[in-house]
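chain below, 181 aa
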Amino acid sequence: MNNLLKLATITISGAFSLANFAFFSNSVKAENQFDVCLRELTASGVTVEDAQTGCADALVPRELSSCVTNISQSTSISAKDALTSCYQVRRPVDLGNCVVSINNTVLTASNKNTQAKVEGDNSQSPLMMALSTCQASLLPTRQSECVIALSRTPQASNPVKAMETCLSAEDFPRDLFPSYN
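prediction:
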């Protein structure tokens, strides 16, 4: 009889556990990646219309909103500018990490994000250049690692020059390996 009582107690508590699991599973499933994307983009300051368009068109909406959130919360770049850039790349999460890494490690750490505008382009700050070079790079993680490393050397402490050098290095280095025709 005592074993039967234990079995009944285990069965009843197991049933309650399953009921709780089913309830919480359904409430989590009710919010899909499009819901998350819309919520995160609008919370970042993107208009509802732009958020709807961006999330609907994104291949992986959650990655798009993660990119925008990362950039807009960790830098002074607006959510609208971040959305435009994150929307136009294959690897939005990598783009966000690239911009934030360059900003935190190179620009903010050395107070170079407040310097004068980029030479030859009066409209672009070093931070906006970080956004555009990370966006232009096929491998944003490589871009940020390269910029960080080049900026650590005393001879190349100019972050703008480091961003340009790293981005141009992604092309095949024809100067080092000339073709013989």
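Residues 113-118 have pLDDT under 50 and may be disordered. Residues 31-88 form one domain.
thats it, cya
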